[in-house]
Amino acid sequence: MSADSLDLYESQRRALTVLVNEYQQRGSPVSSGVLADRMDRSPGTIRNKMPQLESLGLVEGVAGPTGGYEPTEKAFRVLDRDPDAERESVTVAHDFERVDATVESVSFANVNHPSDCRAWVEFQTAMPSLSVGDPVAIGPTAQGDLVVAGEVHSVNDTGNRISIAVSGMEAPVTDG
Prior knowledge:
Layout: H1 10-26, H2 32-39, H3 43-55, E1 59-62, E2 68-71, H4 73-78, E3 89-94, E4 97-110, E5 118-123, E6 135-138, E7 147-155, E8 161-170
Antiparallel strand pairs: 1-2, 3-4, 3-6, 4-5, 5-8, 6-7, 7-8
Helix pairs in contact: 2-3
């Protein structure tokens, strides 16, 4: 266990993840109103939660009319994120609509059985339009031109991580 790992409550991890996602998109402090909207909570609830994260050294409050909250370097380490990494946008197709999203990672829970392949896709921001049972295609990815297609099996509370029951994968074959 690293020095930066913390046992956060699920609600704390969710608030921190949403803050980091929004901050990385904007590059400026995120207001409690924006966080409340993304988390389906009231701004007062968010303002009550932030001192907990500040006391852990994960968040800094920024005063003023354009103020809000900023994640600290420690927050990025706790979430295992690189604050300076350039993220590539990947196309997500859902209900015949294409959306550009930044995919944090794609991992496969199992690939041993072709009829029961599952993939976890983690986005940098919430994908509120995705629901269980929706058909989805993600890709091509920046590094391998991988395209994953299937049906949404589950969506986490923050809407930034989904499980897909994979129906097909495609990547170009290259001579090594």
